[in-house]
Design brief:
The structure is a homodimer. Chain A is α+β, with helices and mostly antiparallel strands. Chain A has helices spanning 5-9, 22-31, 42-45, 182-189, 199-204, 214-229, and strands at 14-20, 82-91, 99-112, 119-129, 135-145, 172-177, 237-244, 253-260, 265-272, 277-287. Helix content of chain A is 17%, strand content 33%. The first copy, chain A, has a ten-stranded antiparallel beta sheet. Chain A is globular and about 50 Å long. The interface between A and B is medium-sized, with 29 and 29 residues.
Chain lengths: 289, 289
């Protein structure tokens, strides 16, 4: 059954009312590996200890998240073959550590990369404090529907990603490990897609073992970004955009490279050290310099 | 302010109504390290994947748990110096993976080990399915109130713990690692006592760093017990009693030793390999042989 372009483009906004507790905020932080290396460090504990809790800024990606709405059969999507393509998060205010938020997700574009490559569905999500309507974050994400290309759409018009100045050496770098059970933990905070736990589903999707969530990699790289560019202060991170170019397998080591550009702006990419494969590219960070 | 023996012995039963979800059952399993070594193994996934979920039997210890009720100032306890002394869990039926349970906790004895050693408070807890009243588990635990000995009570009468036949070599053994952030994860499922996360609280309690929860060690050792004695089948574990003899620091490696005794009965102890210190002793397991 082919993807239903018209149905998807005209679907109503998905409104998600999301109540979360301090323990969820802590679980997100554990899911992206905070505390794994320095469990008693104040820079870990601020995201892990309810007594002095702050939300790690990339947690915006799990707030008001509609989950795998592609699974709804009406859209005709081969959902097991979906992977995350791009993620952009603009942070407007300090994230709450608990409470109730609303996430409003809209499909804004669908590109057809051809029957061999797949379809790309772009959506946006606004996350607001439910009680006040205050905007917390605006996100734009693209999902790569690897089994759904060739529906007759256009492949043109997608916004160009941020270019990484790889002609020169990076200004900062950091090495972060992931754990073999990283996805098992991240999924409780973020995304229960079985691709990240079920060996059979992973195999059916063309992977030898379950892969790490793109958004888990995003959070882990976000830790390096916050440390190298924002002095570890969560409020200084204003925007973080990336393109996921290859899957990460749980247990692999990430090498994050950062290029400072104009004031308050930097480029980022990350590779898996063990395989020397770039897994996250075209990264853009905006921050309070 | 001294411990108030009469008040504690006559306190009404603490009734805890506890609603938990599949994600809590998974979080408990992650908290005791299931999946850390073999994240895609079916024997891990049965406790981690909502699609085929079972509860790990030692999870009984977090069901209907009243938490740190000793903190209530009316009992006069130096609560920061409390450590877990003993834990006995008798399992009557397969644990639910979600739902609502009732925990009923009663103080049954208090022993005075003297001003230098502390007081020992013994309590029991029955855990029942709330809707039916069916008994899931009966627990007996003792808490060591290290700062509250010398209140003038008796030191006699405590039941004798199970003897470990250390004169002969053990029949089975297993080595299990813990992680430096093990307590940070376990506490979300089990017990938010700051002793297990807050370096200042740990120091005030006389420890160089936050220690692992006794009940986290209990669950980790339970994994070795289930594997060596019960063929990995959770329903076969019927009883698991231990005495906590020394703290475990997160990141240390546990060596679990098992002695088979009469049919369906075994003795257990565990030591920290790095320091060659026995941390869990007088262990008794009863199981369907």
């Amino acid at each position: 059954m082919p993807i239903d372009y018209d149905k998807m483009m005209t679907m109503p906004a998905i409104e998600i009312r999301h109540t979360f507790k301090r323990s969820d905020t802590i679980l997100y932080a554990l899911g992206i590996g905070i505390g794994a290396e320095a469990p008693t460090d104040p820079d870990s504990l601020r995201y892990l200890y309810e007594d002095r809790l702050e939300a790690f800024p990339t947690m915006a990606v799990v707030l008001g998240n509609p989950g795998l709405w592609f699974k709804d059969p009406q859209y005709g999507v081969d959902w097991k073959r979906i992977v995350h393509g791009e993620q952009s998060t603009v942070i407007h205010r300090t994230l709450p550590i608990e409470g109730e938020v609303m996430g409003t997700t809209r499909v804004v574009a669908i590109y057809d990369k051809g029957p061999d490559k797949g379809a790309v569905v772009c959506s946006t999500r606004e996350v607001r404090v439910r009680a006040t309507g205050d905007l917390i974050a605006t996100q734009r994400m693209s999902s790569f529907l690897r089994g759904d290309g060739g529906f007759g759409g256009s492949s043109e018009g997608a916004p160009k990603p941020h270019q990484t100045p790889t002609a020169r050496a990076c200004d900062e770098s950091a090495t972060l490990s992931t754990r073999s059970d990283q996805a098992l933990l991240y999924r409780l905070a973020g995304d229960l897609n079985p691709l990240h736990i079920d060996p059979e589903v992973a195999k059916a999707a063309g992977f030898p073992v379950p892969i790490l969530h793109g958004l888990c990699t995003y959070g882990i790289v976000g830790r390096a970004v916050l440390k190298t560019l924002c002095g570890g202060t969560p409020q200084r991170l204003k925007r973080f955009d990336v393109r996921f170019s290859s899957p990460v397998f749980p247990g692999e080591t990430l090498r994050v490279e950062v290029w400072r550009e104009e004031r308050g702006r930097a480029a980022v990419q990350a590779r898996v050290l063990e395989r020397d494969v770039i897994v996250l590219r075209n990264g853009l960070v905006e921050y309070d310099a």
